[in-house]
Amino acid sequence: MNERCFPCGAHLDCSSCVRPLKSPCLRMFMSIRTLKSLSTDQNVCNVCRHSYIKWKSENSAFSAMLDHFENDIVVINDDANSDSYELMDVQVQADDSSRLTTVENPTLITTTNHQDRDFIFFSRNIWIPEGTRCCSGHLINNLLSKDAVDQIKPFSIRYQELSSSDVQLLLSKAQTLFENGKKRFSFDDPRDLNDDEYCLLTSLSRDHFTDFVQITSSSIIRPSCNRSIRTAVGIFLCKLRLGISNRLLACMFQIADKRTVSRIINSARQAIVKSFVPDNLGFGHVTREDVIGLHTTTIARELMSGGDSTDTAIIIIDGTNLYIQKSRNNEFQRTAFNLYKKRSLLKPMMIVTTTGYIVACIGPFMSDFNNNDAAIMKDILLRNTDHILSWLKEHDTLVVDRGLRDSIGVMKALVLEATMTSFLDGRRQFSVEEANESRCVTKIRWIVETANRRLKQFKYFANTIQNSSLVYLESDMSIACTLINHYQSPMTRSKLEDEEIGVQIMQLRQQKYQIQLLLEENNLIKRFPLWEIINHTEIIDGFPIMTQDDLGDLTFGVFQLKRARSYAEERCSTTNLTSDIAYSVHQCKIIPNLIRIPTQSAHSNRVTYHPTIHFTDQAILGWWCDCFTSARFLSCCSYIASAIWFLSHQRWQTQQYHMPLGEYKNLATDLMQVSDFYDPSDDDDSQRYTLT
User: Domains in the chain, please, with CATH?
Assistant: First the structure.
């Protein structure tokens, strides 16, 4: 035999030294060493074969991958006469593990990209040739969906010769895939994370994240050796959403150190502020007419302007708190220390519409006694911050809370209408008119608190912010607000019944409060002997039965009904309200269909309120309570809502509603109340001891 070893040129003079190149991986290895194309009918010597075995043993990471290829790789022959391939519903014919299928059907319209071909080859061992096409319905963001990939099946098996350059390219892609596989989180391939994981990490769905990256890519940001644009944006959103440190982000995304993470975050921040924020936040991005037409609820228009004016903008203004670290700079520490919260914080001012759309987020401002909410609001108006006065017009309505009361004069001087809840001014209870007016305001103003809650869902703002990050705080707040505006649904929308509810509320505001007059005329508020204690079962036939919707019509909201169960559970001393329980009721001796239910305050052990209800077997005629707000007929307080909820709805329920919250008091020890001093008569030696 005068044959030579193809790689090294050694004579193959005995059959024991000859090894054929049938193994695909051995053939790839020799092709890379020689930079030549090798066929299966060529041979190598034992020395070359052992060099391949030695290389595999020294590179264990590739060894497992090559063994996998040896056992299961499938290669296809790209047929020059076929220019379209069907990727779905095909048959399998396999008789050799080193061959690959072709999938043929001339009915497709979209050419698959190299990312899909590589993904299918390394995950399914099916080679898809360049130029393959598929239906566009199988694509999500220009990539094959997971379901489409799972349904791909081989059709035929053919031999394919690979050149040395092809082999080098395959190994390079395999190495890249291997390195990417070691990453804990990756945004580069949209298929690596599902929708829930994207929402958990970034607050955006997968499709919204892809759209956001496309918008950001039009700015100054560029990919680098450390990260792609998708990864940079993803890391920044993870920082806002999770509020974790740069060191932990470096660990999650396999980045060298926290300084590299800081540079990545800063690049993404600059790109987002330039390309995304101006179109989604600030008085310049939305017109006053759009706010009136698209972002004002029907019930707000009914309550604030009587439903007649269609040219009045209604906006809600409130400040929120962002807690920061203490500072060694004494001047900054004094101006950032809030005497009410007893800690350092900064205050941005949120300006939202009645649907929760954030028009502007101004600030942050300092928080000492000179920088209260009213002073901040006056500063914004007098400085015309963000051209707010150019946007507002005369007689526009600003809904504010009591903290902005000192800025009402400036608003009126600018011919703006300001609305806020009333003050007690040392009284025990609001008047009927004041209580009804305050309820109309809170019916509208709650939306700004929901906007603040959405902002704090980005844990970066809910946690204590490091002082080193304060330079970026305004930009980060703006980005969070724009994400809420652009990708999250409105916090509330107008409903068909809102106009009817608004008219009903306006009518109730004008009614006389008859039940309070009834109680005062019969001196029933303070004369306890006129009431007798009975069990709730004694009026079971006389009290009306109501649904949850009926209860909602009484409260004009859900807050009171959410609190109702807590008061009922405390009164019954159990969380199981479907069993035979003792729920005592005070019935009037003079007026049998008048009852009251003494209810412990949720905030004070010393205070007990007396919600009073006037009823028939068909309807609730009226109510009154001696709490701050319930001398009103427009909605009711939580104490009244709890009594009506239990007597008209809950006691008729049979399905137990498991509520373990009432058992939490057993998880910690409540200390015994022991006096600091002992009675000397109890001591044998008649000496007095004190506990220190």
Answer: 18-71 (no CATH), 94-180 (no CATH), 195-279 (no CATH), 288-498 (3.30.420.10), 512-667 (no CATH)
